[in-house]
Amino acid sequence: MLRLRAAGTEAGLEAVGVTSAEPFVEAREAIEARKARDFHGGMWFTYGRPERSTDPRRLLPEANSIVVGALGYHRQTDGVPHDGGGLVARYAWEPFYDQLRAALEAMAVVLVDEGHEAVVVLDDNRMVDRAAAYRAGLGWFAKNTNILLGELGSWFVLGSVLTDAELPPSTAPMADGCGSCTRCQIACPTAALDEAGVLDARRCLAWLVQADGAFPPDHRVALGGRLYGCDDCQSVCPPNVKRIRSTPSTALSPGAVTSVDLVGLLLSDDDALMDRHGSWYIPRRRAEYLRRNALVALGNVGPAADPGPRSAVQVSLSSPHAVVRAHAVWAAKRLGHDDLLALVADDDDEDVIDELNRSVEPMLVR
Ligand code: B12
For a disulfide at 133, which of 77, 111, 138, 194, Cβ 3.0-4.6 Å? Predict the structure, then answer.
């Protein structure tokens, strides 16, 4: 176990724990309960086949143990230029899942060397990562549903190595430490966490940027300048705030993407967009959904008086994709460029017509 842990920590893991390969009964119940209340908002992931995602032995029938690892992704942002709007959530700034996979593989190698089977799994529809981390004693389920590693905070991605080795489980799950704190619930821009520990994905901006179809009109203004993901429920969490103040964070890697120039994105061609951002969850792997998100963000941050946002909206109004034209109508109205709507006056797509008829609160001119 010492060799195993050392392999993981040398490869960058900040915490390693072990649990049995028994099914995650509570996670299955939680998934079913959320589906019954429609809280999954059309998500599939682990919700698609909960009987599989909550039973590790569906992945490795001989599994006896799960070794769980956590890789920290908080990075220093002092002096990082902010590039024209489109905010990217921290977990997507760098390929942290690749770094996590490499660290888990380093532990798998140790197990295989000792004659065991080992299967690495992370951020995969076939396994509930948080439930494994919780049972392996890495942290508790915070009210924002993230696994909070005590004073280390929650800026961690999680993954596992399933193995037939019989490893001694770590200590019991960590006791709840949120107490009476409700900061994450209050900070959520769309009240998606009104019930502690239960996320209503229909309102969660992190899901809405990944979901298919129109961006829900009621949550467009709340999206602000976000392009991908949302960090609000973690940014306000006291252990996260404290850790950032007291521990110097790792520097950002060259090539990290913390924000994306929205105008540049909207003026790029689809191939360039997918080349740059293809590792993100983009609905149906189609660039028009990235444009949709960018148009909502642009409608919120503008600046309305600048020629760049105006020409990005103008180009988008002529898109062959109705979802892009429809959201460009919204952005044009938000930025006060109603004169551009003449470009879609004869559009016969229902969604575009609906947007033309929708009343939109103009953005305050800055
Ligand atoms: C689907 C999914 C999403 C969905 C839904 C998230 C959700 N809360 O269910 C969306 C797209 C919204 C999303 C967003 C994010 N995600 Co996500 N996501 C997943 C995925 C693929 C499955 C999660 C899942 O199974 N949910 C099902 C529900 C039922 O699980 P749960 O919320 O954990 O449920 C437990 C708690 O609710 C608890 N519980 C039940 N009742 C109560 C009551 C109280 C009072 C409390 C405290 C707890 C509690 O028990 C439940 C069962 O175990 C995992 C990867 C994986 N394969 O596991 C990543 C994962 C959960 N996501 C991750 C990340 C980083 C994020 C974001 C931070 C990214 C971002 N910045 O935008 C946000 C965080 C939003 C949030 N507050 O959850 C990490 C979380 C790491 C961590 N420290 O916890 C994971 C584990 C990916 C990874 N491998 O690292 N995600």
Answer: 138
Nearest to 151 by CA among 249, 245, 239, 250: 239
Identify whether the C-beta of residue 192 lies closer than 8 Å to the C-beta of residue 199: yes
Tens-place pLDDT, residues 254-299: 889 999 999 999 999 999 999 999 999 999 899 999 999 999 999 9
Residue boundaries of the structural domains of the chain: 2-163, 261-357
As annotated, the active-site residues are: 123
Residue 26 alpha carbon, nearest atom of ligand 1: 52
Q: Please tell me the distance between residue 130's alpha carbon and the centre of ligand 1 in angstroms.
A: 7
pLDDT digits over 51-102, tens only? 999 999 999 999 999 999 999 999 887 766 665 679 999 999 999 999 999 9
Percent residues over pLDDT 70 in the chain: 97
Ligand 1 pocket test, pick from 47, 90, 129 with the greatest ligand atom count within 8 Å of Cβ, gives 129
